[in-house]
Amino acid sequence: MRRLARATWNGHRDKVLYLVVGGWNTVFQYAVFSACWYFLHDAWHPDAILLLAYLIASVNGFLCFRYIVFKPASHPLLEYAKYQAIYLPMLLINMVILPLLLKHTSLNAYVIQALWGVVAVILGYVGNKYFTFRRMRRPSNAG
Question: What is the pTM of this model?
Answer without folding.
Answer: 0.77
